[in-house]
Structure formats: structure tokens, C-alpha cells
Amino acid sequence: MIVNDRRSALVFPPAKLNLGLRILGRREDGFHALETAMIPIGWHDTLEIERVQGRLESGEKWNLACFGMPIPGGDRGNLVVRAYEILDAEFDLPATAFHLVKTIPMGAGLGGGSSDGAHALMGLNALYGLGLDRKALAEFAGVLGSDCPFFIGDRPAWVSGRGDEVRPWNTEDRIGLAGCFVAVIFPGVHVNTAEAFADLDARAFEDAGTVNAAEAASETWSGALKGPAAEWGEQLANDFQPHVSGHHPEIGRAIEMLKREGALWAMMSGSGSTVFGLFDQRPARPTDLPETWRWWAGAL
User: Fold this and answer.
1) Is 16 a catalytic residue?
2) Domain boundaries, the chain
3) Which helix (DSSP H) or strand (DSSP E) does residue 148 occupy?
4) CA 105, CA 186: separation in Å to the nearest integer?
5) For the structural domain made of 172-299, what CATH number should be given?
6) Which end of the chain has fewer CB atoms at under 10 Å, N or C?
7) What would the pLDDT profile of 9-67 be if each residue is shown by its tens digit?
8) Domain 2-168: which CATH class?
9) Among 45, 102, 116, 147, which one carries the catalytic annotation?
10) Which residues contact 104 (CB under 8 A, 6 or more apart)?
11) Catalytic residue at 147?
């Protein structure tokens, strides 16, 4: 984060990947209980937060200008704006302009919107000297959205509850990723998270053992992550992957492409459709990658 003398702040919201994702059932509050391991990666958006003297011409206290990838929906539903409104209700913030450069695909299982919102909270906190500590920021992030609290820490963590219970990894948890590189493919398919959950719920209802099996398996993949990626095999799983990939064959094709390039292990992230693979050296972009697909690679 870069803060310019209380006039502007610049933050770089990263994407996340899920190393295993188990859905344990629906909670009484209507959210789903889950268990996952989440890691941030170097693929990021860029968000500038600028203090404005007086009110904006629109009469609002905020303005959002977006660049890069188009963002569906109106500005008011954007998590950056919602983050401002949450803090404004508490602290009566000055008028603020946001400039968001969007590079992380949406509806991709990368958490880009959640990351933007969480980093807007952190940037506003720093810019206006609100004095919120990490715990308080995480509580505001929980109001903003289920994935948002993870991004307050921007470090690998075990995530549970509805996504709001975040426990950072210790040194032992990182063993399996030591020296690894990651390649990420977005196959151009946008997956609606609510629809993915609904599909999973319907299939779980058909097979009453699904939830219990997921709960019993959570210990297996949490232990697997402490070993080398080449030995993970089928120990880790994403409960969404079989269902979402059944609707979108591009996902399976992308996973096979990563394996062909030498991935030690590959999986879909979140509710999809992005897939990623772990490598023991930096992978090259596949020569046959379709033009409409996105590729990112870097060290972990």
C-alpha cells in the first residue's frame, strides 16, 4: 500500500486460489459452511483512492471510475463502493474518488471483487487515519462479503465458517508449496456462484452422504498440504469441480493442458471456472492456449 500524505492511497488487491474446498452443508443463517485453504497470488487489480475537496458533481460522496476489464452491474453494487458506504456510515468520511484498474476476471473463482472490497477498507483506513486494527477491519470485511476477511491478511490461511473464520498458516503448513511456481488459466467461462451452490445443494440432497463425506475428508486434505504437491494426488478435492466442469468442458480441457505442461498437481479454484497447476519450475505459456483464455504464472 502507498499513501500519499493523506491525499491518496494506492492498493493492489490480489487474486486468491483455493487449495481444496469442502462444502459442509447449509447453516441456520442461510450461508454455507465450508473448509478450505486459501493463498493469495501475484495476479492483482490496482485501486487508487483519492480524497476529494467538497462534494462531487453527481451529488454523491463517492465516484468510481473503472478501467481494464468491463465490470457488470452498476457502480453502487461494486464492493469498493459498498466498502466506502460501510465505513462512511460509521465515520462520516470525506468525499472520495476511486480509480479501479480491473485485470482479475470476474465470476472466475479468484475472489477479485472480494479482494477489491477488502483493500478498499484497508486503503480508506490508512488514508483517513481511522485507526482500525486488523480485527476490526476483518469484522467490517465480514459484513462486506464472505470471502472478504481473508484478504485483510493477504497471506495463506485456513478458512472456515462461511468464509469469515481465518486462521493464518504456520511454517509447517507451507512445506508443500516450498519452491513451487503456479500457473493459472481462466478459460473464458463465467460461473455464477449462487447457481453453483444451488446445483451442489440439489446433488447433495440426492446423495445424503455427500456432506458427511466432505466433513470426514477435511482432515485428509489439511494433512496432505503439509507434504509435497507431487504427492497430493486425489487427497485434495474441490466439491464444486465435478459439477461445474460437467457444465463447462473447457475446465477439464484447461486442467489437462496444465498437466501436459508438467503440473505436479492441478485443480479448479473456488466455484470456477479458473484452474491452476503447481510446478517445480516456472512454466511457459502453452502455444495452443485459445486467444479468449487468460494465463498468469509466477512464484508462490
Assistant:
1) yes
2) 2-168, 172-299
3) helix 148-153
4) 8
5) 3.30.70.890
6) N
7) 999 999 999 998 888 877 777 777 888 889 999 999 999 999 998 777 777 899 999 99
8) alpha beta
9) 147
10) 13, 15, 43, 44, 45, 69, 110, 112, 115
11) yes
